[in-house]
Amino acid sequence: MGNPVVWFEVLGKDGDALRQFYGDMFGWSFERVEGGMDYGMVQPGETGIGGGVGTSPDGAPPYQTFYVGVDDVAAALARAESLGGAKTVGPMDLPMGGTIGMFTDPEGHLIGLFKGPEGQPA
């Protein structure tokens, strides 16, 4: 696989309730993100990928998605648009490091892109 899936996200109306559900369902423990976001991150175990569960930004509908690691978020967003997708977010720098972007594919599925902080893999 050229560009691996590196992160997942589940956002909805009530981040606390979602974290409770996924914690009870799968035994996940969440580390809250500081900075005003209602977002908790779960770290991968010996296998799998990490992810986040929280409250959708104001006005955004609930969604779930996955993030694909890329070398250049802006270039990947441009490529998605050239292939019939539509850019929805970014590129946007994250407070904890790295850059994200999001696009919808031609059928409307929301997909994320992630570039790790300089010196770290996507």
Keywords summarizing the entry:
122 residues; alpha+beta; 8 strands
What does it look like?
This protein has 122 residues and is an alpha+beta fold. It folds into two domains: 49 residues, no CATH class; 53 residues, Roll (2,3-Dihydroxybiphenyl 1,2-Dioxygenase, domain 1). It contains two helices and eight strands; from the N terminus they run βαββββαβββ. Strand 7 and strand 8 form a beta hairpin. The chain is globular, with a radius of gyration of 14 Å.
Name the CATH class of the largest domain: Alpha Beta
CATH topology of the largest domain: 2,3-Dihydroxybiphenyl 1,2-Dioxygenase, domain 1
Query: Helicity, in percent?
Result: 10-25%
Question: What structural class should be given to the helix and strand makeup?
Answer: alpha+beta
SSE pattern: EHEEEEHEEE
Q: What would the average pLDDT be, to the nearest integer?
A: 90
Q: Sheet with the most strands?
A: 8 strands, mixed
The N- and C-terminal alpha carbons lie at a distance of 14 Å
Instruction: Identify the overall geometry.
Output: globular
Q: What CATH architecture of the largest domain would you give?
A: Roll
Total helix count? 2
Low-pLDDT runs: none
Instruction: Give the tally of structural domains.
Output: 2
Query: Superfamily at the CATH H level of the largest domain?
Result: 2,3-Dihydroxybiphenyl 1,2-Dioxygenase, domain 1
